[in-house]
Amino acid sequence: MPGFGFSAPSAAYDHSLEQGAAAILSVLDQLNIAKATLALSCANGFYAMRVAQRAPHRVASLLLSQTPSVEAMHRWTERVVPRPLTVPVLGQVVSRVFRQKMAESWYRIALPKTTDGAPFQQTARHALRCGGCFSLAGVVQGLIRESVDATQGISTPCTVLWGSQDRSHRLTDPLAILRDAPHAEVVRFDDCGHFPDLESPQRFVQTLLSQMARYTRLKLPCPTTHHAQSRNRCLR
Hints:
The protein is an alpha/beta fold. Helices cover about 45% and strands about 10% of the residues. It has a 4-stranded parallel beta sheet with strand order 2-3-5-6, with helices on both faces. The protein has one domain (about 5-200): 3-Layer(aba) Sandwich (Rossmann fold). Helix 2 (about 45-55) links the parallel strand 2 (about 35-40) and strand 3 (about 60-65).
């Protein structure tokens, strides 16, 4: 999403749900994708939910990770996010000056105690040194401006993956998502923290492909056939 990695946001981008949804829809349009399963995590999940509200015909299903309701996210911000980051301008300055330290601290609290956070921290440090964005203050300020009812009434098929070992969300109810998407299915990854897609990528991919097969015409390959085809390609 704009403001993270190497996707620099414009000066007018305020990380609102409307702008985030517009960014996703723009990507789908540019790639000529008529309908897609959206797999986003944490705060980015709310942008996917807004897409489902604005253009339900473009979204086959949602696969969200560590995304509660907007109301629960507001409470999480009050508990976890340092107060200066919620103040416009000041938050951006603090986030910029301390971006390396904040990124490293984030992995310490978001990963299970038994997980070595060094590889995650090293990747983050390298990206930031190379010009990567970390618009934490912008996202925080954008979401706290949204109404707690902003994403209510989602009818698109929705699955939320929840890493039970995420200490930053130890007081967040995984079922909070049901306030906004009453039909959502919550799947717990009890051995993961905040990043089920990074900590358990194979299980994440299997869950994603299974969901796509349920709500689209995707046909999953037979493991034996897939292995044979891959082997033949290697031999050629």
